[in-house]
Amino acid sequence: MKRASSLAFGLACLASAVHAQDTESKLVINDDIDITTVAEAPAHAENLSEIYSGWAFRSPETMALQMDDFDNPGMIFVDQALDAYNTVEGSAGKSCQSCHGDDAEGLVGARAVYPKWNANAGEVWTMEMAINGCRTERMGAEPWGYTSGNMVNMTALISSVSRGMPVNVSFEGPEHDTWLQGKELYYTRTGQLELSCANCHEDNYDMMIRADHLSQGQINGFPTYRLKNAKLNAVHSRFKGCIRDTRAETYSPGSPEFVALELYVASRGNGLSVEGPSVRN
Amino acid sequence: MRLSTITAVALAFTATVASAQTKYPTDVTFEDGAIAASLSGTPGDPANGQVLMNKGAGNCIACHEVTALAELPFHGGIGPMLDGAADRWTEADLRGIVADAKVMFPESMMPSFYKISGFVRPGDAYTGKAIDPDAITPLLSAQEIEDVVSFLMTLRDE
Fold it and tell me: What is the predicted ipTM?
């Protein structure tokens, strides 16, 4: 069932006939950054033996868009974020650059370990929470909306400088209770369709559900530029969409439930590369 | 690849508890997962059943492949292929499976099309907003289930 390595083979087949994850093609960005899209599953992803980036499930055309930053529409938003990064805002007269250096060099590696326990706050922080923490506490600026354009662009910039680094999210320290809460949410069958994340992304990944080729729902590629809505999409927006599709009442972006779910889902991808901003359909 | 039995076992307890209090819009009696009596009292219309396989709240081919519907695009691969369903199952079995597949197949991923209770965070259709649990209507009406079952009864290999 596995697609023979070449992109040409995929192109030659009808889209509906080809639906096996691509375990052969390699993702190398700009002929420079090697991305791990298949890895041995970490022990705590109990029901999986291998983990796959969502990239491996997309069409050859979509996969190709991520191989060069000039073809990746998500990189336009990284440039926009860099402008915001260098802009002084707020009562402290500082920009992100004042503390984190040119081109976000001080933030290299950050994406790989978020969400992460924040000892001062005594809670798990997502990247978005950390960004707003800097804005309000260090810059004296207004916080950004959780899934606002500014916010998702900034997460794309911060992710882009860690591309190729292995996701390595901690879950056995003070964040463990939050992780367990996320795990419970992952396996809860919600809504009138009674479907859990695991039903689609663990039990049936690599299957077609109507026209959609199910991936493992990994989040190493976030934010994702989706061809479907032609914008960058935040992790919590994707969670919300998937839960809505079970005919359920969703949680809100930035809610404690989604923070917990993000921590758990991120940890299932430990070993894949940071890949965002990625391109998906 | 996937060790889904582990998940199934882990989840089995919760579901058994939930099914003890399951509600349906009308009185329904399951016997080994099958429902002998028509839900509506009116014979099913296989033509409408065929429409429901593809569209609306049925959307059965999201998960199942059906050769008789091959002209429709994108059949899913999650559930078994339905060709020959009427050779494998009686009408009563099929009525039971469509009304609430989890009675016949505990833990099935197949939605329960006639159930109106026991959901976690039920939403108002696909709005993402909550619905008052008392306002929940089944995914398919009694007559729509009869229609789908009458279509399934046309799926014979022999």
Answer: 0.90
